[in-house]
């Protein structure tokens, strides 16, 4: 995935996404001892950066593939992102989701025009059901994070950030399935100026941290984190990019995530997901390293259940 | 207060305030059956529109007055706004606050450089203490809402909104002490294009509604509302403006306020005070009147205790 592909991707998806605002806070800067630039993908369409990769992946299909629709299995933001992107592009989206998923997530997918397919709550059942739809409808399976077009799309948030602030020293993104941090690392590589990429990850699901240590893709045995978007694991498309272009993955505790989340809500006056707060938490964790640096923070999304806040 | 005074005021305070963003939401528009433009003063410095009026009032003082400082009694946003404005302008701000006020509000005032003076929790005690400071230090008393310079300053938020969207049909502002709605009405009068001003008020503190009915300034006997910024009453400087230039004051229930607040948080992904949600609640209350209209909503502020949310 070279520089031109990233540029082409960005031009391609521009009509379907927002160039989201970048916010700053003098008080958080003082607390962190650094200059922070928050790229607010919580203001993205459907409330998360996932819209970027989903739109790019669908736009790369042939006309015949578009006629047969797309399928993914996700109970999170990618399900909504693929549904809304597909709707915007006149393509059918089949979304495989466990029947145990919250009703509000099912409704959101249907609200964006997605075709909901319910299944058992195991990964095997989800994969089996997705395959069935591929076979039955000829639909194209689109993975939420381990897909080159998705990775490129997710990287465009960081590209926009660097276009606005070309002298940023570090970009920090939360690490779940690896699509966002890999895409960001590519944007940093092509559009940064002595800039480096850092990943943020909860201790409770530190598969990416361990993967960088061991040199192979590790999995999580437990997923006991408030950062519900970060429970997934890396894949063979994004892991090599992360190995090569992400300087470090910094782990944070659940308490640190909640404190940073509260700080973002109280000071920036925005609603963000716990996953987004992981990136800010790493700044406080590595205070010395980032001292006086210009640091871009990717606020990944804002879809959060207000009835279940941690404060 | 003529058009030129409002223009001069805006130019004067520009270096000390943000021109806050205007957000829209397709989904809220669909729900409301109208085109809504949210002027986000929760992103204003110190988190509320009050910064505008406070800055203007201090800048209008003579050099000698500035040397002697300013004083106000408030336990809300105006206390912080006057402190921060005064700090920015190198002026002392004495803030009279009941000793029973939440510690977090006292800390906020001190954090912005205000000099905190604690007193008993009655209006009489607050007024007495303010007067003592006027006499002792020669400080100038600045009322949070019943002061011409404050009213003009508060009106600049609506002026910015109309500069961006000159074809807005209605501007809706929450009504507490009356400074914001009076200032907004002046901006609508001078810069609107067939535009009208509406006030939003909780049934629980409907003094402004009753004042318009009776033709004299009414008070509240109870203040049992979640919209803690709207418990105050009108004054002789802003009431005549409201009488002449506000088309209607629409009252909403506590439940309607909370529903609208949740909608703003969930869909716009921003943190706003309950008082701000009052303005949106009126849109749903007067669905027919506002059908298909372009409606500006002043989101007054975002200083809210996350530990005490109504959802």
TrEMBL record, chains A, B:
Pfam family, one: PALP
GO BP: any one term: D-serine biosynthetic process
Domain (Tryptophan synthase beta chain-like PALP) ranges: 14-301
Listed CDD domains: Thr-dehyd
UniProt keyword terms in alphabetical order: Isomerase, Lyase, Pyridoxal phosphate
Record InterPro entries: TrpB-like_PALP (IPR001926), TrpB-like_PALP_sf (IPR036052)
GO molecular function, one term: magnesium ion binding
Similarity remark: Belongs to the serine/threonine dehydratase family.
Protein name according to UniProt: Serine racemase
The species this protein was found in: Allomuricauda ruestringensis (strain DSM 13258 / CIP 107369 / LMG 19739 / B1)
């Amino acid at each position: 995935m070279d520089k031109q592909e990233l540029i082409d991707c960005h031009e391609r998806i521009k009509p379907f996404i927002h160039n989201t605002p970048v916010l700053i806070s003098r008080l958080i800067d003082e607390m962190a001892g650094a200059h922070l630039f928050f790229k607010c993908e919580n203001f993205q369409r459907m409330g998360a950066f996932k819209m970027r990769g989903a739109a790019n992946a669908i736009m790369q299909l042939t006309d015949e593939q578009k006629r047969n629709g797309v399928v993914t299995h996700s109970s999170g933001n990618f399900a909504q992102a693929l549904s809304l992107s597909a709707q915007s592009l006149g393509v059918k989206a089949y979304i495989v989701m466990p029947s145990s998923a919250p009703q509000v997530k099912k409704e959101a997918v249907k609200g964006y025009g997605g075709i909901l397919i319910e299944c058992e709550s195991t990964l095997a059942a989800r994969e089996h059901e997705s395959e069935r739809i591929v076979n039955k409808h000829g639909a194209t399976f689109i993975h939420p994070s381990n897909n080159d077009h998705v990775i490129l799309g997710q990287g465009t948030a960081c590209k926009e950030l660097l276009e606005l602030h070309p002298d940023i020293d570090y970009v920090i993104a939360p690490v779940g399935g690896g699509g966002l941090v890999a895409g960001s690392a590519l944007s940093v590589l092509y559009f940064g100026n002595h800039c480096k990429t850092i990943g943020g990850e909860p201790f409770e699901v530190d598969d990416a941290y361990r993967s960088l240590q061991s040199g192979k893709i590790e999995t999580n045995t437990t997923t006991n984190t408030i950062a519900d978007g970060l429970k997934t694991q890396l894949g063979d498309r994004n892991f090599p990019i992360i190995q090569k272009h992400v300087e470090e993955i910094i782990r944070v505790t659940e308490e640190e995530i909640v404190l940073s989340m509260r700080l973002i809500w109280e000071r920036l006056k925005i609603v963000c997901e716990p996953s987004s707060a992981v990136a800010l938490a790493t700044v406080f964790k590595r205070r010395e390293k980032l001292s006086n640096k210009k640091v871009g923070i990717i606020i990944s999304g804002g879809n959060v259940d207000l009835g279940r806040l941690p404060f």
